[in-house]
Every structure is written in C-alpha cells, then in structure tokens.
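Instructor's aside before we start: the two examples that follow are unrelated to each other. I chose them only because their records fit on one page, so don't look for a connection. First example below.
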Amino acid sequence: MTQTWTPDRIEALLGLPLPELMWQAQQVHRAHFDPLDVQLSSLLSIKTGGCPEDCSYCPQSSHHATGVDADKLMDLDLVLTNAQAAKDAGAGRFCMGAAWREPKDRDIDKVTAIVAGVKALGLETCMTLGMLKPEHARRLADAGLDYYNHNLDTSPEFYGDIITTRTYQDRLDTLYAVRAAGMQVCCGGIVGMGESVRDRAGLLAQLAGLDPYPESVPINALVRVGGTPLEHAPDLDPFDFVRMVAAARITMPRARVRLSAGRRELGDGIQALCFLAGANSIFYGDTLLVTGNAEVDADRALFARLGLRSSAPSPRVECGTPMARPTVRLHQAS
C-alpha cells in the first residue's frame, strides 16, 4: 500500500536528529539501490538566455540584468559534439535545456532531431524546454526522449514569492502531458530561496504525492547570481540540504535523487553526507546551463576517496501506475 506523505509527516522527518534521519534514509536507499552506485548526467544549455519567465533565481530570465545574452538554438552538430564529449567523460545521461516559456512547433522540429542524434550515441536523453503542450510531448516521446525535466521548485504556498509568470498548476499540467506521452519525469526543487522548513516539506509532499512520483528528483541548492532578485538570499545551512536529500530518499524510495545546482559550493564533506543520505545521481561536468559546477577531475577524485563508482544508464523503472491529472494541494500548518 502506498504511503501518504503529508507536509506534517515530512516536516517531522526533517526535524529528526540528523543521525536518525540519515539512518532511516540509508535503510531505504539500500533496500532499492546499490549504495556505491552513482549515476552521472551531463547538462548542456542548447538555447541560452532571453527567457520571458520571471523566476527569481534564474540568470537567464529577460526580467533580470545578469549579463547573460540571448542566443539562438544550438546547431545539431555542436550539440552532438558536446554529447560525445560528455559520454567520453563518463556520463550516461545527457540533459539539454532551452530557455523558453514553451517551445513552438518550429522548435519541436529541431529538438526532435537533436534527441534522435543524441540517442544514436548511446546516451539516455533528457530535456527541459519549459511548459509542454500534449502534442509536443507526444512528438518528443516519439523521437525517443527518455526524460523530461520540469521542476516544481518549491511549495505551492511559497511559489508566488518566486515566480509570477506561470502558475503551479501550469507546471503540474506539463508533468501530466509528459506522463501521458509515455516519458519518464525528472522533477525536483530548489533549497535556499528563503523558504521555510514547512515549504520544503510542502515541496516534497507534492513530489511524493504524484502518482507515480518522479523517476529522477534533482535537489538544487540556490546559486546566488548577481542581478537576480535572490542574489542576497540568506546563507543555506548545508545540513538542511542534507536533510532534504534524506527526506527525498525516504519519501520517494525508487527515484534517483540527484545533487544538482550548487553542488560545487557544498564542498566534499557535505556531498559525502548527501551520498550517505541517499543521493545517487549527480550533474557531472564544468557547467550547469550558465552557472559553475564541480570539475570532472574533482568528481573523479571524490568518488575514489569515497569508494563510489559511476553507473551505466539505468533500466526503465516505473514508480507507480499511470499518472492521474495532478492538481495543486494547499496545506495549512498544523
């Protein structure tokens, strides 16, 4: 029987003494995964800047003066060159991001060719292109796209403080379109934007409450970029980040929990705790879209020090039954 993870239950999890939370997360992790196995994914921005959305954390938004210029969609040959380099460096999944509110028909024609080309290299494929119409989701699925990334970012209650140009329901509708087209879901959020512990619990409750929950769950630490509204956000307690990873593992036991943006700033010690807490995927390479990431050589050295190993692309694992259309669930603090 599927557990119901309410914000109250998850907030209680996040409030446990860290050794107890880590122990629970380790038990769940070992029941479903090899604890030494970590998936490597590489991320490339195939269309940078000029996004009409006003996400407060994003340097690619046209609403913020961050010095990021708007580029056109990258040519297929250049994408494939980057994808081959990522594969040669050990990545098993190649993720591609385009700074759009939503793709147009002409964009889909181009990105489906990109998907087919990257798949032909033997890599898993993932894209994040903004909101998706059902017909666009079907075309991406037909082209062979394995995963679609569309993060919820935070709780429904805090969401309006971060983004005003699209609604929470818009995001859930895109996730439904992705599932209906037969693709797997990559969906997570960001920690350190000034949200409360209750908001963090609310985010995880939304994610765990999707049926099925996402196969990939990226947990991002805010990268404070000059010119964005969150450039002066308060420091994030790194142990709070570890707690989010552990709670994500417990509430979504068969998902790949990924250390994503902000990983470089966490340092080796906190990353090691995250792996103990159940993280088993990382973004690998020198750049995440337009912000820095841990260097490849540093990651290899850390894996060697911790006795971890990278995995090949994982077989498709369904985390539940076909998704019912999700709606926003608001929860009041008890």
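Example two begins here.
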Amino acid sequence: MYHYIQDKELLKHLKRTCPNIVNQLVQSINRDSVMTVKACLVGSGAKNLITQNANHPVDLDYNICIIRTKSVDIKDGCEIKEYIRKQFNGVLNANGWSDCQDSKSVLTAGDMIFKQGNKTAFSIDLAITCEYNDCWHRLIHEKTGFVNLDRYYWNEIPDSRQLEQKVKAIKSNFLWNEVRDTYLEKKNLYLRRNDYTHPSFVVYIETINQIYNKICPN
C-alpha cells in the first residue's frame, strides 16, 4: 500500500535534487529558440504529496508544460517529444544520470540512490503537457513496434479545467490536509484494483475536484 514518506532527511534530499534537475531542464529549453516551458509540480511532485508503495522505488511526477512554441508546430508531437527527450538527457548526463526512458506518456529518469543516508531508489517521471481552453492535455506516444508508424497525440485529461484556480481556492480554505488524505486513499484504491490507468497526475486532478466541490458544489 502507498504511504507518505516520513524520513525527513530523505524528503529533504528528494525535494532538493529532483526539482533542481527539472528546473535545469526548463532553463535549458527556455534558452533555446524552439519553445517556452514551465515546470508544473503535480501529483507526487507537488508539496507534501510524495508517496511510496511499500519498499518500492519512489516515483516523483513532474510536468513540463508548454507555454508556447517558437520554431515547432504544437501538433508535431514526435518532434516535441524528441526535442525535450534530448534536452532532458543533456541535463541528466551533466548531473551524472543515465539517459531517460521514453514510455507512452512520460520520460523516466532513474532509478537513482543517494550515496549517503536512506538507500531508497527514486526516479523522475516527466510528462509533457499543455493547457488549452483551460483544460490540461498530455502528449501521448502510442508505440506500434515500428517507429515510422508510431502515433503522437494530445490527450485531454478529464475534469482538468481551471486546475490551478481550484488549488488556490482549496489552499485558501485551509483544506490541503484533506487533499493529502484523499490523494493517498485514491492511490491505494487503484492499487488494490490493479488499475494502472490512473497515473498520479490523474489521481491528483480527481482529488482536487473532489475537495473543490465541497467548497463550490455544482
């Protein structure tokens, strides 16, 4: 079952190391002339939501949100993902990490282990996202086994409209602890069901909507 990590020293190292890697990636991309991005910390990347399943490695989830493209078409998912993958590998290699792995919906870096202290392995899952019409979309790489036939498309995440505004409303009503409790309950619910169609970002959005609806019921 999932639990929140209690080891404060491990949390300190994770919160220092992983955001630093992601921020270096953002800076590297924004110095270039291809696109402008920002890091959107959600799910386990968000404040106080770092979970671990038993003694398994810790997955920290981050989004690279495309604000605008400069020399690439936003519809060209293959070019976008390949560009970000190469930039990500450059940052990882400069920090002593191996190249990332390209999966259907994320780029995964790890598993890494800190040389000192807690020896829990950890990785970074990086999703490529954009916000369109107040809704969040994730870039999906549907693999066929033949590179030339692979499909790239933007998948709208259900009920993701005005996510940032909802988070602000929840925090202003001092309900973030309820977010923590609900998020953990949902993670474990899907784990018990062997449901792997709900990544952390989706669970996070479900949680935010559930708590927000208590403040502003439909």
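The radius of gyration is 17 Å.
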